Amino acid sequence: DYQKAAQLCQKACDGGEAVGCTALGFLYQNGQGVKQDYQKAAQLYQKACDSGEAGGCSNLGVLYQNGQGVNQDYQKAAQLCQKACDGGEAVGCSNLGVSYENGQGVNQDYQKAAQLYQKACDGGNAVGCSNLGVLYKTGQGVNQDYQKAAQLCQKACDGGEAGGCTALGFLYQNGQGVNQDYQKAAQLYQKACDGGNAVGCSNLGVLYKTGQGVNQDYQKAAQLCQKACDGGEAVGCAALGVLYQNGQGVKQNYQKAAQLYQKACDGGNAFGCSILGVSYQNGQGVKQNFSTA
Predict the structure, then answer these.
(1) Average pLDDT of the chain to the nearest whole number
(2) Are 59 and 81 in contact (CB under 8 A)?
(3) Do residues 288 and 281 make contact, with C-beta atoms less than 8 angstroms apart?
(4) What is the longest distance spanned by two Cα atoms in the chain?
């Protein structure tokens, strides 16, 4: 009962219980039992943070990172996550790691990011484990170690972090740090996709298209790529475009294919841009235009 929860958290917060303010802020942030209000959430997190509640600092940092209820301010976000991390809040360490990895509000520093992800992971934060696993996979801030990457992503996936399941699936698909196993990769992508991870849906869609680890099924591939594309995963849009272009699992539609390539290209997918150029060159789904191509 979110409404009842909101009333109790309000009472606790009014009574000087900082954790109650953080919990109430979370309800306002997510519109649970109260009308969604990022500004109100930010005020409550601020109140909690000022009282030394690390969770409030961490959550407020995320709002500054996303510009929700406050003006976007990466520097402020990093400071708040630092305060949260110092206060023993693993999520704060993980979020601060993201700031260092992306160079947002702080100088980009993969080594520092890795240390923070390690601290977060040790503190039971699955996202921290997953992010650290990816750094071990790419060799950024740490010596490249696929086995270590697989262990961390496994820990993250077991901890309910869908991104960790996707990353682990990728390692199984490519036989990095683990024995190559397309079936295992497919299972992990499915788990990730069910957990709302768009990349997992996209990767699983590609396996259904190629028939690796699963029975080839173009219809299923199209459904998964559509789900991924709707979830903002550019690769999914490009893969779905190919299916429309070839009439695999969907009715052949060059116009729809071109639209999907455009969406993929706008999302930063190089393949989408490249194949869209070919479409303009051939006049498939778009008016032939050599200058655009």
Answers:
(1) 94
(2) no
(3) yes
(4) 69
